[in-house]
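Deviation from plan, reported transparently: S-adenosylmethionine complex.
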Amino acid sequence: MGRKDKAKRFAENETFKCLIQPSMEEVFHRDHPLKGHWGKEIFGNDAPIVLELGCGKGEYTIALAEKYPDRNFIGVDIKGARLWKGAKYATVNNMPNVAFLRTRIEFIDSLFSRDEVSEIWLTFSDPQPKKPNKRLTSKIFNDIYSRFLIKGGLIHLKTDSVLLYESTLEVIAENGYELLESDNDIYGSGRADGDGLLQIKTFYESQFLAKGMKITYLKYRLP
Ligand SMILES: C[S@@+](CC[C@H](N)C(=O)[O-])C[C@H]1O[C@@H](n2cnc3c(N)ncnc32)[C@H](O)[C@@H]1O
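Because the crystal trials were delayed, the predicted structure below was used instead.
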């Protein structure tokens, strides 16, 4: 995408009510005013909140929100030009149960309070081959999630990366998390068939599938 197109998207992002773009000062070592208040301030209800972390263009956020109008969905990413796609769709289609949040996931603790989130989707997260602690399924990140995820809240990981899949299985085993589902080839096994949640395809997923790569899935719970 050219610089001009990006600038156009960033300008339009400023107009989307569903897109929250906190400044660094608002989240660095301090709580954001929305922390603990997403239901009331953004959605006007107290329905469960589901996060998609590293959502890119927000395919899961949008598809799940269409499927479950009685739940609220927030797609989180740092890249504004990608978030534009989901925010534009949600705006044009008047989706009351969708929001997007532009922030580094490292600061997410400043944005959600205890028990504010009921479920997390991690879709094609960067595998971070050289920096295991930066993986969104590392113990460090799971500890952060545990501060705002409800008891028994589900974490889903969908990835093409064998490294991320296997290292997450290790993190789950080492830390006594509860593994609920694991599949190292969801299209081969038939798990992604039908109209279930796993057949939703993200932008990256479609590219990996076109290259013939296998897509894996894990579902787990923190203790
Ligand atoms: C490989 S892409 C996947 C995007 C989308 N989920 C998909 O499947 O098409 C990973 C995304 O995670 C975002 N991301 C990676 N690390 C992040 C972080 N620490 N904070 C916020 N976003 C992050 C990137 O900006 C990127 O959009």
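The first strand starts at residue 19 and ends at 20. We consider this an acceptable substitute for the interim report.
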